[in-house]
Write a structure and sequence with these properties.
This protein is an alpha/beta fold. About 40% of the residues lie in helices and about 15% in strands. Among the domains are: about 190 residues, TIM Barrel (Alpha-Beta Barrel), CATH 3.20.20.10; about 80 residues, Methane Monooxygenase Hydroxylase, Chain G, domain 1, CATH 1.20.58; about 40 residues.
Length: about 650
């Protein structure tokens, strides 16, 4: 397998860079330094200061925060906002586009206060605004957005309270757009606007027939639940005309899905939307804003293809395809170029968070050595297995494959019926493993590897137990088979020799990572380093800033992880900006509505009863109760003493 592939050349940093694909998905933010550590370069490709993640992890632990830790590198947010705006500006200039670009960040992608605060701060100079899809998001947006020239887009299903909040924001000088998502909303908005005597800026969310490939195909196209169809649009226009409010209609919005891997869908969506935009102008609406929603994808697997976890275009192509599409459609009838708005969420925040966790233990595939003398049993199972082992060669590989699997099931049958003991069965299973390993080794000499042998290759891996919960920290890996880049953050000068999958510490068999980018030789496992006596081994899961924090849940009551935000200074030093302690055991119990006081009282009574029955002494009760107290205060993840 891969071991041999790499064995041909000496392992070095370049090999590590290629194997883990860090230059492909790292977008200039992540790379490997000469000491073999992963470093972050928050300014991106233009060679600013870099920082070793191993060093940061060590310093986080020195401050008393345990792994797992979600590390946020603040400046990356600023770099991504800058990249998006500067790229649009360049494309707008190059194409003589007569309009500007304004972005908004959709709060749902990462609602954490410090994220919204940082976006509002870094986005200030670019008039980067916010998009809210609910009342709490709108209140957060109003309180965080400092720049009054930035847009505040209200999407989502809106009740009277939601609309009133937006109208109040308009009164206070915010540039609010109410996007009408379903036909029923329009009457309520008209009514509330009259009541408050405010002239609202309105937008229509339209249903495009363009459907994007990818994970979120259903958000767009005819099947989408939100958005106005053609006759809804006409009804809405007529309704606004009747109220004398057509001059409020300024924006057209669509969203055909998140993580759109294929650029041709982005172009098709923009072209179709521009035709509708043109029609609205011809109907007499002032318009002026075209909001193309989200969808700008992140190349998580670094393949630069139209696979679900990737994209087949660059930021520059994204921007130019949008600008060119608008020009192509609107110039035909001399329709003025609109202000372009996009609601990129994922592309803005994905890069800035890294989940770092330590490996607690490894369950190795490698069986103990074959004993010199096999035990005597009254059947020939062990002898047959031994014979198969000795027979493995390139010529007999398929036959040995069949035999190994046959004898393994025979061993299980014999055990079930009481014909062999647990010790004999263990020896049989170990012999099977030895055969499988020998088959796998031998198969490297073949030009063509038979299907069955390929299957065997996929069975030979170690399980690395990581101190994290997939359900809390990487929910998309579980829910939608998202591939996220994962690799050791140190020891990269050493050749990784163990083929591994990663398990979390929930007791759920779904809590594992066993899908890796197509570019790996083996897509179902990853090469990692063996543990070294007593030294921590740290893995990082990268590009987890979008959606993961918010969608995570309390499976097995593993709570929020510790979070540390850092800011890297121009001189390469860095500051801890903020640290948030993760949930304690008491926190997560209270989330699921346990009454902590009642729990403590019950524990006291149980311990009292145990004294009464003579099981423990009063002194033991004291230390047992102290242990419970400490347990409630502790971190939900594995803590080292
Ligand atoms: C989710 C969502 C977005 C964000 O999409 P990304 O692909 O993360 O950029 C934008 N707009 C709307 C309406 C959404 O629902």
């Amino acid at each position: 397998m891969s071991q041999e592939f790499f064995g041909k050349e000496k392992w070095n940093i370049k090999e590590a860079t290629d194997y883990y694909g860090i230059d492909n998905w790292g977008a200039g933010y992540f790379s490997i330094n000469d000491s073999g550590d992963v470093v972050v370069t928050p300014s991106g490709a233009d060679n600013g200061p870099s920082l070793s993640l191993r060093k940061v992890a060590r310093e986080i632990e020195a401050r008393g925060l345990s792994m797992p830790v979600l590390l946020r590198i603040e400046n990356i947010l600023g770099s991504q906002i800058k990249l998006l705006h500067e790229t649009f500006r360049k494309v707008i200039r190059d194409n003589d586009y007569r309009g500007v670009y304004k972005g908004v960040f959709p709060i749902k992608v990462n609602q954490q206060e410090q994220v919204i605060e940082a976006i509002s701060q870094f986005g200030g100079q670019y008039n980067h605004g916010l998009e809210a899809g609910s009342k709490p998001e709108l209140i957060a947006a109003i309180s965080m957005l400092n720049n009054r020239s930035a847009c505040l887009i209200c999407n989502g299903y809106k009740d009277e309270e939601f609309i009133d909040l937006g109208l109040h924001a308009i009164k206070m000088g915010y540039q609010v757009f109410f996007v009408i998502e379903v036909p029923g909303e329009i009457d309520l908005i008209i009514e509330r606007a009259k009541f408050h005597d405010v002239k609202p800026a309105l937008g229509f969310r339209i249903k495009l027939s363009t459907q994007a490939d990818g994970q979120w195909a259903e958000s767009g196209g005819d099947a989408s639940v939100f958005g106005l169809g053609m006759s809804h649009i006409i009804d809405a226009i007529d309704r606004l005309k009747a109220e004398g409010m057509l001059d409020c209609l300024q924006l057209l919005h669509y969203h055909i899905g998140s993580q759109i891997p294929n650029i041709s869908d982005i172009r098709a969506g923009a072209m179709e939307a521009c035709r509708l935009y043109e029609e609205l102008v011809l109907e007499g609406a002032p318009m002026g804003y075209l909001d193309l929603g989200g969808g700008l994808a992140v190349d998580y697997d670094g393949s630069n293809t139209n696979s679900h976890s990737s994209r087949n275009y660059s930021m520059e192509e994204y921007c130019s395809d949008i600008v060119e599409s608008i020009i192509t459609v609107l110039d035909k009838n001399d329709i003025p170029h609109p202000t372009i708005i996009t609601e990129s969420g994922r592309a803005i925040v994905a890069y800035y968070s890294v989940l770092i966790f330590n490996i607690l233990d490894i369950s190795s595939f490698e069986p103990p050595p074959i004993p010199d003398k096999l035990p005597e049993v009254d059947n020939d199972l062990l002898e047959n297995l031994m014979a198969t082992y000795n027979m493995v060669s390139t010529k007999t590989i398929q036959e040995c494959c069949n035999d190994a699997l046959f004898y393994r099931s025979q061993a299980r049958q014999l055990f079930k019926h009481g014909h062999i003991t647990i010790r004999e069965r263990a020896i049989a299973e170990n012999l099977v493993k030895h055969i499988l390993i020998k088959i796998s080794e031998t198969s490297k000499e073949l030009d063509h590897i038979p299907k069955d042998v390929e299957k065997i290759n996929r069975l030979i891996y170690d399980v690395y137990y990581g101190n994290f919960s997939l359900f809390q920290s990487l929910p998309d890996v579980w829910a939608i088979d998202q591939i996220l880049p994962l690799m050791p953050i140190h020891r990269l000068k050493e050749e990784p020799t163990r083929q591994a999958i990663i398990s979390d510490i929930t007791c759920d068999c779904d809590g594992k990572i066993d899908k890796f980018p197509d570019t790996y030789q083996d897509k179902s496992s990853i090469l990692l380093h063996p543990l070294q006596n007593g030294d921590e081994y740290y893995l990082g899961v990268f590009l987890v800033g979008a959606y993961q924090e918010t969608l995570g849940d309390l499976h097995n009551l593993f709570g929020d992880t510790n979070v540390v935000s850092i800011h890297v200074n121009d001189d390469g030093t860095y500051q801890f900006m903020r640290e948030l302690e993760g949930d304690s055991v008491a926190d997560v119990l209270s989330y699921v509505e346990y009454d902590l006081r009642a729990i403590k009282n019950r524990l006291k009574n149980i311990a009292e009863d145990a004294i009464h029955k003579g099981y423990i002494t009063a002194r033991e009760r004291k230390s047992i109760l102290a242990g419970f107290e400490e347990g409630l205060r502790g971190y939900t993840y594995f803590e080292k003493e």
